[in-house]
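Example record

One chain of 820 residues, shown exactly as stored in the release files.
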Amino acid sequence: PSRSNGVGNSSYHHTFVHLFPVVLVKLTTFLSHGDQITMAVSPPFPIDTSRRPFPLLPLLPLLLSSYLFASASGFALVQSSNRSSAQIFSPAFSRRQKICPSHITAMSSSTASPPSLTTPKNQSSGGGDDDDDAPSSPFRSSPVVLVGFSHGDGRLQKLASAYSERTSGSVVISPDSGGIRDISVIDLDADPSREIPIYSTSPDGSRPLLVYASSAEDDEAFLVRLSGVTSHEVAISGDMVWEDMAWLLDRLSTHARNPGVAVGGEGARRTMGPHTFFLSLSFGDVNEAAEYMGAMCGDTDVMEFRMDLIKNQNRHHIVQQVQDLRLMSRPHAARSPLLASSISLLTDAIPILYTVRTANQAGTFPDATENDIQRMYDFAALGFRTGSEVVDIESAWDQTPDTAKRRKAILESAEEDYGSTLLLGSHHVVAKKVSDEEALQLFHKCALGGKAHGAKVVLSVDDAADAGMADVAGRKFTENYATEHEGTIITPVGLVLGDVGRQSRILNTYFTPVTHEALPFKAAPGQLSANEIMKERVEQGMISPKRFCILGHNIAYSVSPAMQGAAFKTVGLPHSYVIEDYEEVLDFVKGELFLGNNFGGASVTIPHKQNILPYIDEVSYAVKIIGSMNTIIVKDGEGDSKRKLYGDNTDWKGIYNPLKRRLPNKSSVGRFALIIGAGGTARAAAYAARELGLSLVYQNRTPSKAADLAATFGGSIVSSLDDEQLTEVDIDVVISTLPASVGVTLPEHIVKSYPIIFDVNYKPFSTPLLEQALLHGCNVVRGSEMLWEQGVGQFEAWTGRTAPYGVMRDAVLKNCLPTE
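Predicted structure tokens for this chain:
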């Protein structure tokens, strides 16, 4: 299957687009014991992927003999991680045997599982930067286990096969196999009454991601029972488009495997950041919104799924509706942040806010009895099971011991099992006025005991002059909560119902609910579109157009204006980004842009990454250690100062993030990074590699400069790439910071260990080092990926909100990809 993981320089792209070096043939035969055999044949020689596709005909005798061997012996050939030989796994793991916790422990351990069919040895299960103090995902490196009924049409097997092809993984259609790597199937058609085993965790603390595949034919009570033993849920039918289903399952597993988001952490604050919006859909069936989706998605950051408004509230149908919303918005997901794992880089998944709004809270879901409230919580729990990025939890329903117990259980489950989903505590005051103090206490109640990432309070007032009441209470709540909880910020969303509350939607800076001009009606009276709100905020002086720039010399080639300009435009911010080319940094700091009140910040490149430091008020820890900065952030000043200039370095994040996604999720003990060069970028590379826990080795033609790196970051020095010391260890990562014109390549003994090879140059797109790496089947990272990763870090630091990752990546690639 041809697939790119979304990164233009990925070895996935070169492996699959050119069909080789792995020839994958899936031969399925059902032997007397009913097991499926999956075979992968790897040619014992490297194949030049730049040439025409390798002919299959000469390989047919090899494939046939392999097939006969497997059929006769029950063995499976699985490609080894070095792509040049095959490992044979004993059928003892694939024959029928009872599933038991110890068996599953071995199965779910990343060290016990066989390697992926097409994944280089250093492919990771990480997901980019961890949130500060965020909990890790309980599913972080675990395989997916699909549970459900095939209903005679093989739908489970079709979904598993489509998912394995999309993620370049393996599939085992047997509930009794311990040798799974990516996905297996428990088909309940064989025994509907069988108990789904409780899977114990692997040594790294992770456990399998059990996904129940519900069908319209399933009994509702059975669905509820299965929800008690599985963690997530998808809805399938025999006539599904399996490519779509594979993407949905890929998104679900990627979301679940991501690190948890800490309350008050950067991930939560940026998702609900300044000038972010969620669009409220009020259709009885989300498919009625299909014709408006293209226009709506361009102006919103999150889509709100109002479960209480869906006409058919069958459990399977609700899951299906969430999926339909995802698929309809997918082609238009320009503003989406990155959703990353070792398997996938998804930039086309618009986050969903899942809401069950009760009748007393300005919604329609019944809430007259305690049983109604229990059902409401059951449907709220379904939001977590569908992998929704944000789930709304009403704070009002804890009046009785039973409802209080149920809410406590769902909040604990959210924290322990669904850490990558944000919680939005909410309370609506309908047709009743409250005092300022009561409004403040409602915000505190919406903090849900410190488990909510955002607190939303909607008030009722009689006079439009009081429309700012909720916003004032929200800001005071944020200040009080941060004082009482060591600086933790819970995002406030403060609104007023009805037309009198129109101004409240303009004043509320964070995570504002909106409608859209294209829709035939509004979800609530007084709602405005994102465009209307942004226009009003500019006119009322709440947001002013800022001027950003890249500072350097001889930088007419820079891609940053295209990248950052596209990002500002995509999210509707009225900012500009230009080139400031100065030989002397003093000319810049005396200039109109730097001194102007509308200076928003800057990217800094050579030769000014160190020269600018004397003009900065405060710098980050990374800048202090690395010794240079690439980002100026303008903050509010203190006292008589109108502004404060903060210096940061996101170059190291441009190196750290791609490597973290590719490195295995295992102990860093005994893993080495070789850094070639000793300039400023080499210092950022050393900082990033140290943050990844790698042991450092430096090579530079001037040993004294390499010694400076070792003195700061630790590690050892080699005199040349042929140094005998480099033959005694396997290098996991090679980072070259030398100019492309040097034409550096690696000795054979280094590339034989299949390291990740990172070349920081983004022009030219291919260098001798990268060509050598691809020829040997190594995973590569190009400088273009570093460029957009560090740019994403700058954009989010300047704006406080999520960056449109795909837009920024595409702007870079458009300027970096070869034109021929």
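Notes: The chain has a mean pLDDT of 83.
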